[in-house]
Amino acid sequence: MSRRELREQIFKLLFRVEFNAPEDMPEQVRLFFEQDDPIDEQSQDEITQKYEKIVENLPKIDEMLDQTATGWTKDRMAKVELTILRLAVYEIRMDETIPVSVAINEAVELAKKFGQDESSSFVNGVLAKFAK
User: Is the pLDDT assigned to residue 8 strictly greater than 80?
Assistant: First the structure.
């Protein structure tokens, strides 16, 4: 599975956080990997590890977003954009293996694919502030 495909799967799994209680997420992770399109074991491990690291850091990531996204708080953001931003902020600030430009570009691509018409511009604008 390519890095882009892995990132997309992490996004899809992370998106579930907004709709499920924390105690329900282990079951959601299990259900996620039982979907019709099977994911190989190595990719499952990579997805799960990164997902868990992001969730572990969500309070810190959300605080950074609230401080950086001028005029916006995480509570005002659409759930798709919020999830994309959480993933990207994690990659920019906490994952030294991902170059900042790649994290931003991939986030914009996710926003084009899963968001609304203005999503990619919004995501790019917020993440540009993290790149400085």
Answer: yes
Q: Could you write out the DSSP letters of every residue in 74-104?
A: TTTS-HHHHHHHHHHHHHHHH-TTS-HHHHH
pLDDT in tens, 32-82: 999 867 899 999 999 999 999 999 999 999 999 999 998 888 889 999 999
Structure tokens at 18: 């907004």
**Domain limits for position 81:** 3-131
Torsion over CA: 113, 91, 29, 46 (sign): positive
Provide the CATH number for the domain around residue 41. Answer: 1.10.940.10
How many domains would you assign to the chain?
Answer: 1
Say what the pTM is: 0.94
CA distance 59 to 62: 5
3-state secondary structure of 70: coil
Helices marked H in the chain: 3-15, 25-33, 41-56, 58-68, 79-94, 100-114, 119-131
* Non-local CB neighbours of 66 within 8 Å, separated by 6+ positions: 73, 74
